[in-house]
Amino acid sequence: MTIRKMSVPAVVIAMLPLAGCRKDLCYDHNLHGTRIQVHKQPEWVLEWERDNTLTDWQQSWDEEFGVDYDDLRPGMPSGLRVVNYEESGNVRIHNIPAEGGIVSLAEGNHAFLLYNNDTEYIVFNDVDSWASASATTRTRTRSSYFAQGHDGEITVNPPDMLYSCYVPDYTAVRAVEPDELPVTMQPLVYTYYVRYEFKSGREYVALARGALSGMARSVYLFDGSTSDDAVTLLYDCELTDYGAEARVMSFGVAAQSAVFRSGETYNLNLEVRLTNGNLKSFDVDVTSQMRSQPRGGVIVVEGLEISDTEGTAGGSGFDVDVNGWGEYEDIPLPL
């Protein structure tokens, strides 16, 4: 897989001397203006899928998909958070623009955890320790999709884009010129391009939404490994000529740091509201596709059908421009 990186102006992390300087003695800035500073140069890895053993999508992309491979790449964020773990045990958090900024440092040894701070659905946990700092997403309910998700999993919103970088060891020393410290911001969120293809009855579909089970509840910021607990992602779909499609963002499969869990299955759901107002749900086992695509990829479900009897039953009609799903609207919940 070709890794695409995007360089941005450097992040400058610096500490001005703590001791004061009398105005009449500060004419020699080369002597009195030394300071502790780190010149960080971020690179952003803009990948939407990794570790795919099924297909080299970048080389064998199907033009019939109607979307280019590169169109699925994430963009750069608007802001960056720097968590500074000092040797003394203090933890200092600073927010700077994605293109860089200045952050004060104390003299001595440091570790840094960097991640973008412009997320909407992500919740950050335990950032006081780099080893336990993690990201989760918010709970979301759907009354028509069981009491919970597949196999009793919690149902949640897909996360928005997240990058991170961990710098385990840096010693801050005073110098006139900044020290160069390259930083690579790796993606922790990946995209599944999901296609629901109908064999018949597509004309009866007014709205569509989906769910994907077996996905990671959280991801560790320092190394990108995912937790063992699985959740079901709920998401909306866009109608197409062939059926419906969705771009589903996730942390990847649960227990990503290990081999796929024995007996683990992955279920893809599609719920459609028909033009007569009725609901119909499809559930498909996509384990074979997921096992080879743990961090993003393409999932295709074929042969879905809605009979004429189902599509015309009731005949009440349904206006897709009025109230959407109505009482079936998903409800985001605070953690």
**What summary fits the major beta sheet?**
10 strands, mixed
Structural class: mainly beta
Global geometry: elongated
Q: What is the distance, rounded to the nearest whole angstrom, between the alpha carbons of the first and last residues?
A: 37 Å
Rg, nearest Å: 24 Å
Number of helices: 3
Give the fraction of residues assigned to helices. under 10%
Instruction: Characterize the quaternary organization of these chains.
Output: single chain
Q: Determine the strand fraction and express it as a percent band.
A: 35-45%
Number of domains: 1
Quantity of strands, as a count = 24
The whole-number mean of residue pLDDT values reads 82
Characterization of this structure:
The protein is mainly beta and 335 residues long. The protein is 4% helix and 45% strand. The protein contains three helices and 24 strands. The strands form five sheets. Strands 1, 2, 3, 4, 5, 6, 7, 12, 13 and 14 form a ten-stranded mixed beta sheet that branches. Strands 11-18-16-21-22 form a five-stranded mixed beta sheet, with no helix packed on it. It has a four-stranded mixed beta sheet with strand order 19-20-15-23, with no helix packed on it. It is elongated, with a radius of gyration of 24 Å.
